[in-house]
Amino acid sequence: MRIAVLTSGGDSAGMNPAVRAVVKAGITKGCEVYVIREGYEGLVRGNTAPPRPHRKVHRNLPAERLAHFGDDSLLKNLSFGDGPALREGAGDAEEDEQESGTLKGRHIVRVGWDDVRGWMGEGGTFIGSARSAAFRTPEGRLAAAHNLIKEGIDGLVVCGGDGSLTGADRLRAEWPDLVKQLLSSNQITQDQATTYAHLKISGLVGSIDNDMALTDMTIGAPTALHRICEAIDNINSTAASHSRAFVVEVMGRHCGWLALMAGVSAGADYVFIPEQPPKSQPWEEEMCEVIRRHREVGKRKTIVIVAEGAHDRDLNPIKADKVKDVLTEVLKLDTRVTTLGHTQRGGRPVAMDRILPTLQGIDAVNALLEATPDQPSYMIGIHENKILRIPLVDAVKQTQAVAAAIEARDFATAMSLRDPEFEQFYHAFNLTSTLEKGNRLPREKRLRVAILHMGAPAGGMNAATRTAVRYCLSKGHKPVCINNGFKGLLDDNIADVTWLKVDNWTARGGSELGTNRTLPDTDLGGVASKFQQHQFDALFMIGGFEAFSALLILEKARKDYPAFNVPMVHLPATISNNVPLTDFSLGCDTSLNALVDACDAIRQSASASRNRVFVVETQGGQCGYIAAMGALATGAVIVYTPERGINLDTLRADVRFLKARFMLDEKGKSEGRLIVRNEKSSDVYSTELITSIIKEEGGDLFDARSASLGHTLQGGIPSPIDRARAVRLTMMCMEFLEKHAHDLLQHPPHRRRGTRDTAAVITIQGSGIKFVPVEDLVAHADMKKRRAKHTWWEGIKDLSELLGGRTDLVAHK
Ligand code: ATP
């Protein structure tokens, strides 16, 4: 198959990794791959210059060098492409001639494996994006169809926002008619009309707004959110210093995702989003009331986030300047406006904007290869952790329905048409940020909730604690925060927390409560008596494998210690991501971002010194998640995990691959290459030993160095994704505790019998979130190695190596 990929609409971080994935996956599957420069505009203009001669980088390699490739004939074929270096300024002068701001010459260009080298860590889109008026016209789409057929392309991947995917949907719907028109005007032959009777299209949603329905996340949204949160974190300190208010305007014409998520993740005071304007009219009083309450409890700073498309219930725009005037005049606050503008487009993609487009790009190619004429075109989406194919028409229709509902002032429908997550976040924001008294439960339903951290610190622990504390206060429960885990409980080390005290905790790394590895069975009787003494009605534990083990101990001890017959829940938080049955733990996104940052810097150094291999060692204990995912996100060529281990055969094959790969590089243009090794991959083949072997074997061809990332992987400031995930999952945990407490606490303490489902772990499994009784996790755990028996990311190691050029793996499969 000949497939082409284009990027369209506003650029977003993650578009380059998406194109890279499509190119590499396409080539691996035996397709010829093309990129279309300048989005639909390039498709309409097509090629007016002849193609450059086909190029094979290794064509001049002497026979003895080629012999190094052994049977790996696929690897021999990877490094070709007539794609000129596609980056800005590096193109062929004739091709890059500018005409009225757009390129003329060749817009549809065949590319090879190495043409997308190094694209993973780069923001924007190297193949260009444009808004094309021509493509909106029937003539433009006819020209586009003609160009595709002329180039022999029968599959198209479009990466763009809802407009771009609407355009793709339209092109496909009109395709039979366009082919007929081209045939009747003799622009194509009957043979061509028959061969290209169907156009196969896959959509990738590239948009910073996260405005596409039926998918949780669009490519570019995590990076945009990251930049916004960084900005607000920075504003926070100056706002507090001067007791100021800041109104921050963020992008989102029809979608309030960025504003809402920034509000949740950065701990704002008030947000304006298009889907749910303030309930009261005029809106000023509602906002002022909330902020007044915050100031009354002693808050020194105020952050209000306004989505670009915010409006009141009559659709009158609410602009940042107007909000500023209200805060200044009504509340007498010294107020400033910050418009983040194009900085939100993001630049370097965060880890998620590398992993998501990579996995989705691969599936977009698979969808093209599997497409049949009677199937709809798919948009590749994601729900929780499951990559999904959604009929493009449905997604476009539902996205347009949100805009229509807003237009009709039917805000309830607009909210309901967004993903269920959106509404959950809105509810979470309101509950934890408004200080409203109306949510309080009747006295008899109020609980004393114990909250503690266990194990090593992980990003998002503090955001989870803040949410739990504020949830409790809002509902009239009593949050009892314990410093220093179970050890602290035995020492009566209870933290003094208030609504205000936890205010800044979302952005704080580490563990504000302090964490400890002491398990409750060091003194079960003592722990039970503390449960009684403090009259705990529920327990909320945030931590990793220790927290899971602790919950198991407490659950088993229920028969001997009635004090443990209260609802108990564990929220997994560990950078190792080794808790069984959950796809993600809090902290692993932060950790991946720390790894990506470090590896980008290391790779730069490796590339600058040419011909260098860096062996990067990661934490993770006996679980290779961070190593495997980190390798995927950084484009590492080899990964070592404890699950697979290392032996002489693998090492020999790896060295052979490195030799072959470095030989393929054009003289003087060699790239540094990364290997990621989890700290516990092998007791014998240590990072140092592997580095020495590679160095020795590399001879004149390449050199090797090692770097250990150690505790830096715990990350400094938690990533917005970890913060938001912490908020959402904590809300669900609190609801879980309330629900089970309601049933359990009807009985006097000595007659309570906690059933197995009242001691549970909250897990993300595929596309759903489930509470699993802690007992049920045991069958899925390797208690000795402290990790899950089976992992969903098992294939990620192979995938990252495959994308790194390990095409010998294809032969093995
Ligand atoms: P963003 O989320 O950044 O706004 P987008 O893909 O929604 O991205 P648009 O400007 O709406 O950006 O669309 C990009 C291009 O897609 C348009 O310039 C046009 O060429 C094409 N397009 C959009 N809507 C249609 C349509 N209804 N019919 C044909 N083509 C369309």
UniProtKB/TrEMBL annotation:
Q: Where does Mg(2+) bind?
A: 162
Where it sits in the cell: the answer is: Cytoplasm
Query: Where are the catalytic residues?
Result: 209 (proton acceptor)
Which positions are annotated as binding ATP? 10, 131-132, 161-164
Please tell me whether the keyword Cytoplasm is annotated for this protein: yes
- Residue numbers binding beta-D-fructose 2,6-bisphosphate: 517, 574-578, 612, 619-621, 679, 705, 786
A single cellular component GO annotation: mitochondrion
Requisite cofactors: Mg(2+)
Q: What class of enzyme is it?
A: transferase
Q: Which UniProt keywords apply?
A: Allosteric enzyme, ATP-binding, Cytoplasm, Glycolysis, Kinase, Magnesium, Metal-binding, Nucleotide-binding, Transferase
What is this enzyme's catalytic activity, as reactions? beta-D-fructose 6-phosphate + ATP = beta-D-fructose 1,6-bisphosphate + ADP + H(+)
Which family, according to UniProt?
Belongs to the phosphofructokinase type A (PFKA) family. ATP-dependent PFK group I subfamily. Eukaryotic two domain clade "E" sub-subfamily. Belongs to the phosphofructokinase type A (PFKA) family. ATP-dependent PFK group I subfamily. Eukaryotic two domain clade 'E' sub-subfamily.
**PANTHER family according to UniProt:** ATP-DEPENDENT 6-PHOSPHOFRUCTOKINASE, PHOSPHOFRUCTOKINASE
- State the oligomer form and interacting partners: Homotetramer.
| HAMAP family from the UniProt entry | Phosphofructokinase_I_E (MF_03184)
Q: What is this protein called?
A: ATP-dependent 6-phosphofructokinase
